[in-house]
User: Fold Aspartate aminotransferase from Chondrus crispus.
Amino acid sequence: TSRFAGVPQGPEDAILGVTVAFNADPNPNKINLGVGAYRDDVGLPFVLSPVREAERRIVHAQHHMEYLPVAGSRTFVDKAIRLAYGEHNHHVKTGQVASMQTLSGTGACRMAGVLIQRFLPALDDGPRDESPLVLLPNPSWANHAAIFRDSGCTVGQYKYYDPATKSLDFEGCVSSLEDAPDGSVVLLHACAHNPTGVDPTPEQWAKLSAVLKEKRHQPFFDMAYQGFTSGDMEVDAASVRRFVDDGHRIVLAQSFSKNFGLYGQRVGCLSVLTDSQEEALAVDSQLKIIARPMYSNPPIAGVRIVEEVLSDPELERQWRMEMKGMAERIISMRTMLKGYLEELGSVQNWDHITNQNGMFCFSGISKEQVAKLRDEHSVYLTENGRISMAGVTSQNVGYLANAVHKVTM
Ligand code: PMP
Assistant:
Protein backbone atom coordinates (compact mmCIF):
# COMPACT_ATOMS: atom_id res chain seq x y z
CA THR A 1 0.00 0.00 0.00
CA SER A 2 1.04 3.57 -0.65
CA ARG A 3 2.59 5.50 2.21
CA PHE A 4 0.60 8.46 0.91
CA ALA A 5 -2.75 6.74 1.31
CA GLY A 6 -3.66 9.14 4.11
CA VAL A 7 -3.13 12.34 2.11
CA PRO A 8 -6.33 14.37 2.30
CA GLN A 9 -7.84 15.87 -0.84
CA GLY A 10 -6.88 19.57 -0.93
CA PRO A 11 -9.14 22.38 -2.12
CA GLU A 12 -8.92 23.63 -5.71
CA ASP A 13 -7.24 27.03 -6.17
CA ALA A 14 -10.10 29.55 -6.10
CA ILE A 15 -9.03 31.41 -9.25
CA LEU A 16 -8.09 28.38 -11.32
CA GLY A 17 -11.34 26.70 -10.19
CA VAL A 18 -13.36 29.37 -12.00
CA THR A 19 -11.82 28.32 -15.32
CA VAL A 20 -12.54 24.65 -14.64
CA ALA A 21 -16.25 25.49 -14.16
CA PHE A 22 -16.23 27.79 -17.19
CA ASN A 23 -14.76 25.10 -19.45
CA ALA A 24 -17.52 22.66 -18.45
CA ASP A 25 -20.33 25.12 -19.38
CA PRO A 26 -21.91 24.44 -22.85
CA ASN A 27 -23.55 27.93 -23.13
CA PRO A 28 -22.08 29.62 -26.27
CA ASN A 29 -22.48 33.05 -24.62
CA LYS A 30 -20.45 32.12 -21.55
CA ILE A 31 -17.83 34.62 -20.35
CA ASN A 32 -14.72 33.90 -18.27
CA LEU A 33 -13.83 36.89 -16.12
CA GLY A 34 -11.81 34.86 -13.64
CA VAL A 35 -8.37 34.49 -15.08
CA GLY A 36 -5.85 37.35 -14.83
CA ALA A 37 -4.46 37.00 -18.33
CA TYR A 38 -4.94 39.47 -21.16
CA ARG A 39 -7.32 38.60 -23.99
CA ASP A 40 -7.72 40.45 -27.27
CA ASP A 41 -10.99 41.96 -28.46
CA VAL A 42 -12.23 38.60 -29.73
CA GLY A 43 -11.42 36.97 -26.39
CA LEU A 44 -8.30 35.09 -27.46
CA PRO A 45 -4.88 34.90 -25.81
CA PHE A 46 -2.66 37.55 -27.37
CA VAL A 47 0.95 37.23 -28.46
CA LEU A 48 2.57 40.62 -29.09
CA SER A 49 4.02 40.97 -32.58
CA PRO A 50 7.55 41.94 -31.36
CA VAL A 51 7.47 38.80 -29.21
CA ARG A 52 6.60 36.72 -32.30
CA GLU A 53 9.37 38.41 -34.26
CA ALA A 54 11.89 37.83 -31.47
CA GLU A 55 10.85 34.18 -31.31
CA ARG A 56 11.37 33.86 -35.06
CA ARG A 57 14.85 35.38 -34.85
CA ILE A 58 15.76 33.12 -31.92
CA VAL A 59 14.73 29.96 -33.77
CA HIS A 60 16.68 31.17 -36.78
CA ALA A 61 19.81 31.80 -34.69
CA GLN A 62 19.91 28.12 -33.60
CA HIS A 63 21.05 28.90 -30.05
CA HIS A 64 22.43 26.31 -27.67
CA MET A 65 20.25 25.15 -24.80
CA GLU A 66 22.87 25.02 -22.07
CA TYR A 67 22.13 25.91 -18.45
CA LEU A 68 21.89 29.53 -17.47
CA PRO A 69 23.88 30.53 -14.36
CA VAL A 70 21.99 30.12 -11.04
CA ALA A 71 21.16 33.85 -11.04
CA GLY A 72 19.97 33.68 -14.65
CA SER A 73 20.82 35.85 -17.61
CA ARG A 74 22.78 38.97 -16.71
CA THR A 75 21.70 40.69 -19.93
CA PHE A 76 18.03 40.13 -19.10
CA VAL A 77 18.39 41.15 -15.47
CA ASP A 78 20.17 44.39 -16.42
CA LYS A 79 17.36 45.27 -18.81
CA ALA A 80 14.68 44.41 -16.25
CA ILE A 81 16.36 46.57 -13.62
CA ARG A 82 16.46 49.53 -16.02
CA LEU A 83 12.76 49.19 -16.79
CA ALA A 84 11.97 49.41 -13.10
CA TYR A 85 14.50 51.87 -11.66
CA GLY A 86 14.84 54.02 -14.79
CA GLU A 87 17.54 54.36 -17.42
CA HIS A 88 19.84 56.57 -15.40
CA ASN A 89 19.45 55.46 -11.82
CA HIS A 90 22.53 56.26 -9.77
CA HIS A 91 22.25 53.19 -7.49
CA VAL A 92 22.06 50.90 -10.49
CA LYS A 93 25.15 52.50 -12.02
CA THR A 94 27.14 52.10 -8.81
CA GLY A 95 26.29 48.41 -8.49
CA GLN A 96 24.19 48.72 -5.34
CA VAL A 97 21.38 46.53 -6.67
CA ALA A 98 21.51 42.79 -5.94
CA SER A 99 19.42 40.96 -8.51
CA MET A 100 18.54 37.68 -10.14
CA GLN A 101 16.31 36.18 -12.80
CA THR A 102 13.37 34.42 -11.15
CA LEU A 103 10.51 32.07 -12.05
CA SER A 104 8.35 35.04 -12.91
CA GLY A 105 6.73 37.28 -10.30
CA THR A 106 5.68 34.37 -8.11
CA GLY A 107 9.25 33.09 -7.96
CA ALA A 108 10.56 36.59 -7.22
CA CYS A 109 8.15 36.90 -4.28
CA ARG A 110 9.13 33.46 -3.02
CA MET A 111 12.87 34.15 -3.26
CA ALA A 112 12.32 37.43 -1.43
CA GLY A 113 10.29 35.62 1.23
CA VAL A 114 13.14 33.19 1.91
CA LEU A 115 15.76 35.96 1.85
CA ILE A 116 13.71 37.95 4.38
CA GLN A 117 13.14 34.91 6.56
CA ARG A 118 16.83 34.01 6.55
CA PHE A 119 18.50 37.38 6.75
CA LEU A 120 16.27 40.29 7.73
CA PRO A 121 17.72 41.28 11.10
CA ALA A 122 15.95 42.81 14.06
CA LEU A 123 15.86 46.62 13.87
CA ASP A 124 18.90 47.00 16.14
CA ASP A 125 20.76 44.64 13.76
CA GLY A 126 20.72 42.02 16.47
CA PRO A 127 19.39 38.48 16.08
CA ARG A 128 15.65 38.05 15.65
CA ASP A 129 13.72 35.95 18.06
CA GLU A 130 10.63 35.68 15.85
CA SER A 131 9.96 35.12 12.19
CA PRO A 132 9.72 38.42 10.29
CA LEU A 133 6.30 40.04 9.94
CA VAL A 134 5.19 40.68 6.35
CA LEU A 135 2.16 42.96 6.06
CA LEU A 136 -0.09 42.55 3.03
CA PRO A 137 -2.77 44.99 1.90
CA ASN A 138 -6.30 43.81 2.71
CA PRO A 139 -7.17 42.35 0.27
CA SER A 140 -4.17 41.23 -1.77
CA TRP A 141 -3.42 38.65 -4.45
CA ALA A 142 -4.46 35.42 -2.69
CA ASN A 143 -1.12 33.75 -3.36
CA HIS A 144 0.84 36.39 -1.40
CA ALA A 145 -0.18 35.00 2.00
CA ALA A 146 0.69 31.44 0.95
CA ILE A 147 4.05 32.50 -0.53
CA PHE A 148 5.23 34.34 2.58
CA ARG A 149 3.80 31.73 4.97
CA ASP A 150 5.56 28.93 3.08
CA SER A 151 8.75 31.01 3.16
CA GLY A 152 8.61 30.93 6.96
CA CYS A 153 7.46 34.52 7.49
CA THR A 154 4.57 35.63 9.66
CA VAL A 155 1.82 37.20 7.55
CA GLY A 156 -0.24 40.18 8.69
CA GLN A 157 -2.44 42.75 7.00
CA TYR A 158 -2.81 46.48 6.72
CA LYS A 159 -6.03 48.28 5.79
CA TYR A 160 -6.33 49.08 2.12
CA TYR A 161 -9.70 48.80 0.43
CA ASP A 162 -12.93 50.37 1.63
CA PRO A 163 -15.95 48.40 0.33
CA ALA A 164 -18.25 51.34 1.12
CA THR A 165 -16.51 53.71 -1.30
CA LYS A 166 -14.97 50.99 -3.50
CA SER A 167 -11.73 52.92 -3.26
CA LEU A 168 -8.66 53.29 -1.07
CA ASP A 169 -9.16 53.58 2.69
CA PHE A 170 -6.16 55.86 2.89
CA GLU A 171 -6.58 56.93 6.51
CA GLY A 172 -7.04 53.33 7.59
CA CYS A 173 -4.04 52.33 5.54
CA VAL A 174 -1.78 54.93 7.13
CA SER A 175 -3.00 54.28 10.66
CA SER A 176 -2.61 50.51 10.39
CA LEU A 177 0.95 50.95 9.08
CA GLU A 178 1.64 53.35 11.96
CA ASP A 179 0.22 50.88 14.48
CA ALA A 180 2.24 47.93 13.13
CA PRO A 181 5.47 46.89 14.91
CA ASP A 182 8.43 49.04 13.79
CA GLY A 183 10.54 47.45 11.09
CA SER A 184 7.82 45.28 9.55
CA VAL A 185 8.03 44.28 5.90
CA VAL A 186 5.27 46.07 3.95
CA LEU A 187 4.15 44.59 0.64
CA LEU A 188 3.06 47.27 -1.83
CA HIS A 189 1.56 46.67 -5.28
CA ALA A 190 3.55 49.09 -7.46
CA CYS A 191 0.52 49.74 -9.71
CA ALA A 192 -2.70 48.08 -10.90
CA HIS A 193 -3.45 46.53 -7.51
CA ASN A 194 -4.75 42.97 -7.65
CA PRO A 195 -7.60 42.33 -6.90
CA THR A 196 -9.00 45.82 -6.27
CA GLY A 197 -7.66 47.96 -9.15
CA VAL A 198 -7.22 50.68 -6.52
CA ASP A 199 -3.86 52.49 -6.50
CA PRO A 200 -2.68 55.34 -4.27
CA THR A 201 -2.33 58.78 -5.92
CA PRO A 202 1.18 60.28 -6.23
CA GLU A 203 0.50 62.38 -3.11
CA GLN A 204 -0.62 59.30 -1.21
CA TRP A 205 2.50 57.42 -2.31
CA ALA A 206 4.58 60.32 -0.95
CA LYS A 207 2.81 60.06 2.41
CA LEU A 208 3.22 56.25 2.47
CA SER A 209 6.91 56.68 1.76
CA ALA A 210 7.18 59.05 4.76
CA VAL A 211 5.23 56.70 7.05
CA LEU A 212 7.35 53.70 6.11
CA LYS A 213 10.50 55.68 6.73
CA GLU A 214 9.28 56.96 10.10
CA LYS A 215 8.39 53.41 11.14
CA ARG A 216 11.56 51.92 9.60
CA HIS A 217 9.39 49.43 7.71
CA GLN A 218 11.00 47.49 4.87
CA PRO A 219 9.20 48.24 1.56
CA PHE A 220 8.63 45.24 -0.68
CA PHE A 221 7.21 46.15 -4.08
CA ASP A 222 5.39 43.58 -6.17
CA MET A 223 5.25 44.95 -9.71
CA ALA A 224 3.31 42.38 -11.74
CA TYR A 225 1.46 44.83 -14.00
CA GLN A 226 3.93 47.56 -14.97
CA GLY A 227 2.30 49.37 -17.89
CA PHE A 228 -1.25 48.21 -17.21
CA THR A 229 -2.39 51.24 -15.22
CA SER A 230 -1.38 54.02 -17.61
CA GLY A 231 -0.17 52.18 -20.71
CA ASP A 232 3.28 53.65 -20.07
CA MET A 233 6.03 51.61 -18.41
CA GLU A 234 7.76 54.73 -17.08
CA VAL A 235 4.63 56.28 -15.57
CA ASP A 236 3.71 53.02 -13.87
CA ALA A 237 7.13 52.75 -12.23
CA ALA A 238 6.64 56.09 -10.45
CA SER A 239 5.82 54.56 -7.05
CA VAL A 240 8.96 52.42 -7.06
CA ARG A 241 11.16 55.30 -8.25
CA ARG A 242 9.69 57.68 -5.69
CA PHE A 243 10.57 55.30 -2.83
CA VAL A 244 14.08 54.85 -4.22
CA ASP A 245 14.52 58.63 -4.53
CA ASP A 246 13.29 59.02 -0.96
CA GLY A 247 16.16 56.82 0.21
CA HIS A 248 14.29 53.55 0.82
CA ARG A 249 16.28 50.38 0.28
CA ILE A 250 13.52 48.53 -1.51
CA VAL A 251 13.02 44.90 -2.41
CA LEU A 252 11.32 44.51 -5.80
CA ALA A 253 9.61 41.62 -7.59
CA GLN A 254 9.01 42.08 -11.33
CA SER A 255 6.90 39.94 -13.62
CA PHE A 256 6.98 39.91 -17.42
CA SER A 257 3.89 37.70 -17.65
CA LYS A 258 1.44 40.50 -18.38
CA ASN A 259 3.36 43.32 -20.04
CA PHE A 260 5.20 40.99 -22.43
CA GLY A 261 2.41 38.40 -22.50
CA LEU A 262 4.92 35.69 -21.52
CA TYR A 263 2.77 33.97 -18.86
CA GLY A 264 3.89 30.38 -19.43
CA GLN A 265 7.54 31.30 -20.04
CA ARG A 266 8.06 32.31 -16.38
CA VAL A 267 10.10 35.48 -16.84
CA GLY A 268 10.74 37.58 -13.75
CA CYS A 269 13.33 39.41 -11.71
CA LEU A 270 14.04 40.01 -8.04
CA SER A 271 16.15 42.95 -6.94
CA VAL A 272 17.31 44.25 -3.60
CA LEU A 273 18.66 47.79 -3.33
CA THR A 274 21.54 47.87 -0.87
CA ASP A 275 23.96 50.53 0.44
CA SER A 276 27.04 49.46 -1.49
CA GLN A 277 28.37 47.21 -4.20
CA GLU A 278 29.96 45.02 -1.55
CA GLU A 279 26.64 44.52 0.18
CA ALA A 280 24.92 43.80 -3.13
CA LEU A 281 27.45 41.08 -3.90
CA ALA A 282 26.82 39.46 -0.51
CA VAL A 283 23.04 39.47 -1.10
CA ASP A 284 23.63 38.10 -4.61
CA SER A 285 25.66 35.24 -3.16
CA GLN A 286 22.87 34.32 -0.74
CA LEU A 287 20.17 34.49 -3.42
CA LYS A 288 22.16 31.94 -5.40
CA ILE A 289 22.49 29.73 -2.32
CA ILE A 290 18.69 29.85 -1.90
CA ALA A 291 17.94 29.11 -5.57
CA ARG A 292 20.43 26.30 -6.14
CA PRO A 293 18.72 23.58 -4.06
CA MET A 294 15.24 24.77 -5.08
CA TYR A 295 15.43 24.74 -8.89
CA SER A 296 19.15 25.10 -9.67
CA ASN A 297 18.77 27.57 -12.53
CA PRO A 298 15.97 29.39 -14.32
CA PRO A 299 14.53 28.71 -17.80
CA ILE A 300 16.23 30.22 -20.84
CA ALA A 301 13.57 30.55 -23.55
CA GLY A 302 11.52 33.45 -22.18
CA VAL A 303 14.43 35.69 -21.24
CA ARG A 304 15.87 35.32 -24.74
CA ILE A 305 12.66 36.83 -26.08
CA VAL A 306 12.81 39.80 -23.70
CA GLU A 307 16.51 40.32 -24.46
CA GLU A 308 15.85 40.26 -28.20
CA VAL A 309 12.99 42.77 -27.96
CA LEU A 310 14.85 45.13 -25.64
CA SER A 311 18.08 44.98 -27.66
CA ASP A 312 16.42 46.23 -30.84
CA PRO A 313 15.07 49.80 -30.66
CA GLU A 314 12.43 49.06 -33.31
CA LEU A 315 11.15 45.94 -31.53
CA GLU A 316 11.20 47.83 -28.24
CA ARG A 317 9.17 50.65 -29.76
CA GLN A 318 6.60 48.16 -31.07
CA TRP A 319 6.46 46.43 -27.72
CA ARG A 320 5.80 49.68 -25.85
CA MET A 321 3.10 50.55 -28.40
CA GLU A 322 1.33 47.18 -28.23
CA MET A 323 1.65 47.17 -24.44
CA LYS A 324 -0.12 50.53 -24.44
CA GLY A 325 -2.72 49.05 -26.78
CA MET A 326 -3.53 46.32 -24.24
CA ALA A 327 -3.94 48.88 -21.45
CA GLU A 328 -6.09 51.10 -23.65
CA ARG A 329 -8.37 48.27 -24.74
CA ILE A 330 -9.04 47.47 -21.08
CA ILE A 331 -9.72 51.13 -20.30
CA SER A 332 -12.18 51.35 -23.20
CA MET A 333 -13.98 48.21 -21.93
CA ARG A 334 -14.35 49.91 -18.55
CA THR A 335 -16.00 52.91 -20.21
CA MET A 336 -18.28 50.70 -22.29
CA LEU A 337 -19.34 48.49 -19.39
CA LYS A 338 -20.20 51.48 -17.24
CA GLY A 339 -21.98 53.17 -20.16
CA TYR A 340 -24.14 50.10 -20.88
CA LEU A 341 -25.08 49.73 -17.21
CA GLU A 342 -26.20 53.35 -17.11
CA GLU A 343 -28.13 52.95 -20.38
CA LEU A 344 -29.91 49.91 -18.95
CA GLY A 345 -31.10 52.18 -16.13
CA SER A 346 -29.01 50.70 -13.33
CA VAL A 347 -29.55 52.77 -10.21
CA GLN A 348 -26.22 51.66 -8.72
CA ASN A 349 -23.18 53.88 -8.89
CA TRP A 350 -20.64 52.28 -11.25
CA ASP A 351 -18.00 55.05 -11.20
CA HIS A 352 -15.51 52.64 -9.66
CA ILE A 353 -15.43 50.65 -12.91
CA THR A 354 -13.63 53.54 -14.59
CA ASN A 355 -11.85 54.83 -11.47
CA GLN A 356 -10.06 51.55 -10.80
CA ASN A 357 -6.88 50.62 -12.70
CA GLY A 358 -5.18 47.75 -14.44
CA MET A 359 -6.57 44.36 -15.28
CA PHE A 360 -9.19 44.10 -12.56
CA CYS A 361 -12.41 45.72 -11.45
CA PHE A 362 -13.40 45.03 -7.86
CA SER A 363 -17.06 45.27 -8.73
CA GLY A 364 -18.72 45.14 -5.32
CA ILE A 365 -20.91 42.29 -6.64
CA SER A 366 -21.76 40.02 -3.69
CA LYS A 367 -21.01 36.32 -3.37
CA GLU A 368 -24.70 35.53 -3.97
CA GLN A 369 -24.76 37.73 -7.08
CA VAL A 370 -21.58 36.04 -8.36
CA ALA A 371 -23.40 32.68 -8.01
CA LYS A 372 -26.41 34.06 -9.92
CA LEU A 373 -24.18 35.41 -12.69
CA ARG A 374 -22.69 31.95 -13.03
CA ASP A 375 -25.91 29.91 -12.73
CA GLU A 376 -28.27 32.15 -14.68
CA HIS A 377 -25.99 33.90 -17.18
CA SER A 378 -22.87 31.71 -17.55
CA VAL A 379 -20.70 34.65 -16.47
CA TYR A 380 -17.78 33.39 -14.37
CA LEU A 381 -15.83 35.44 -11.84
CA THR A 382 -14.18 34.87 -8.47
CA GLU A 383 -16.35 34.89 -5.35
CA ASN A 384 -14.95 38.22 -4.19
CA GLY A 385 -16.60 39.98 -7.15
CA ARG A 386 -13.35 40.60 -9.00
CA ILE A 387 -13.92 41.06 -12.74
CA SER A 388 -10.93 40.47 -14.99
CA MET A 389 -11.52 43.32 -17.44
CA ALA A 390 -9.21 41.53 -19.87
CA GLY A 391 -12.00 39.00 -20.48
CA VAL A 392 -14.43 41.75 -21.58
CA THR A 393 -14.69 42.39 -25.34
CA SER A 394 -16.73 44.71 -27.55
CA GLN A 395 -18.74 41.56 -28.46
CA ASN A 396 -19.62 40.44 -24.93
CA VAL A 397 -19.74 43.73 -22.99
CA GLY A 398 -23.44 44.26 -23.78
CA TYR A 399 -24.35 40.75 -22.63
CA LEU A 400 -22.22 41.22 -19.51
CA ALA A 401 -23.79 44.59 -18.64
CA ASN A 402 -27.25 43.09 -19.01
CA ALA A 403 -26.35 40.14 -16.76
CA VAL A 404 -24.77 42.39 -14.13
CA HIS A 405 -27.77 44.71 -14.23
CA LYS A 406 -30.20 41.80 -13.75
CA VAL A 407 -28.39 40.40 -10.71
CA THR A 408 -27.89 43.80 -9.07
CA MET A 409 -31.41 45.20 -9.62
N1 PMP B 1 1.83 39.43 -8.13
C1 PMP B 1 0.57 39.73 -8.42
C2 PMP B 1 -0.09 40.84 -7.69
C3 PMP B 1 -0.11 39.04 -9.42
O1 PMP B 1 -1.37 39.36 -9.71
C4 PMP B 1 0.55 38.00 -10.10
C5 PMP B 1 -0.14 37.23 -11.20
N2 PMP B 1 -1.43 36.87 -10.97
C6 PMP B 1 1.87 37.73 -9.76
C7 PMP B 1 2.47 38.47 -8.77
C8 PMP B 1 2.71 36.66 -10.36
O2 PMP B 1 2.48 36.25 -11.62
P1 PMP B 1 3.63 35.50 -12.42
O3 PMP B 1 4.20 34.49 -11.50
O4 PMP B 1 2.96 34.93 -13.60
O5 PMP B 1 4.62 36.54 -12.79
In short: The pocket of 4'-deoxy-4'-aminopyridoxal-5'-phosphate is lined by residues 36, 104-106, 141, 189, 194, 222, 224, 255, 257, 263, 268 (CB under 6 Å). DSSP finds 16 helices and 13 strands in the chain. The longest strand covers residues 97-103.
